[in-house]
Amino acid sequence: xxxxxxxxxxxxxxxxxxxxxxxxxxxxxxxxxxxxxxxxxxxxxxxxxxxxxxxxxxxxxxxxxxxxxxxxxxxxxxxxxxxxxxxxxxxxxxxxxxxxxxxxxxxxxxxxxxxxxxxxxxxxxxxxxxxxxxxxxxxxxxxxxxxxxxxxxxxxxxxxxxxxxxxxxxxxxxxxxxxxxxxxxxxxxxxxxxxxxxxxxxxxxxxxxxxxxxxxxxxxxxxxxxxxxxxxxxxxxxxxxxxxxxxxxxxxxxxxxxxxxxxxxxxxxxxxxxxxxxxxxxxxxxxxxxxxxxxxxxxxxxxxxxxxxxxxxxxxxxxxxxxxxxxxxxxxxxxxxxxxxxxx
Length: 344
What we know:
The chain is built from 13 helices and eight strands. The chain folds into two domains: 46-212, Endonuclease III, domain 1 (Orthogonal Bundle); 235-334, Nucleotidyltransferase, domain 5, CATH 3.30.420. The radius of gyration is 45 Å and the shape is elongated. By secondary structure, the protein is α/β, with parallel strands linked by helices.
């Protein structure tokens, strides 16, 4: 067949087979590799369904505690019990949940410790030296002589990525204070395997944690005002004014307060300093007059809402209203200056 090819090639074309040969059903060819696949249907028990159906750790413990109470009452018929759960029932429910998930996930390591055999090298528990205390697998370590509590010295081992472990991690994110603080609180009683990665994933999905860790928003500054970018104006055309002090100076044999008034050119940031004997209006107006006599009359003066500035502004406006407009107009008319007065 290697030399001549298939026999149907020697025949007429109309006698060739119409459908292609199915090469998937070849069973007697030794060069064809056979693969055997096995499908296993995992049967989920009722306890696992119950655990996975609850989304809150406290609620899960309450349900398990009620179930354990019901089982106890069925065995001990006629026993009267309190309506509320006791602390012992709560702890028994927690212990039952921990024992169940350890037997379900960490059964290999649990059997090795019970049989006094070393844990396999590929296990995730080999670095924490696990021990068994009252049926629960806990962290070993070298803190037996420490003054810490037994739960802090030997926390309960929780399996990685288990639903109960996730519930416990969520329960301890109460203050939304970050991964490190939450992890320190959890490890006082529990030791979740791979807890840092799991906790980071949970914190990243928490809305309040994301708000606390969000960067501070930066507001975009608006455009500069026109009086700060007009470079063709002479200095001190637009001025900002403020007071500073007090300074104690000697006057005769006494010590008196003196204040400084700073005038800043908004365009070129040049400054002019004047002294004020006090913070009253008259002292400010006198300092303003000295500034105008030295630097010229400004077009615009900006200040904060200081009392001396506000009152000085009012007095200047009232003085302008009291001007003799006719006399000023006649004086400026001789110099061919147009006078237009707008009352403030």
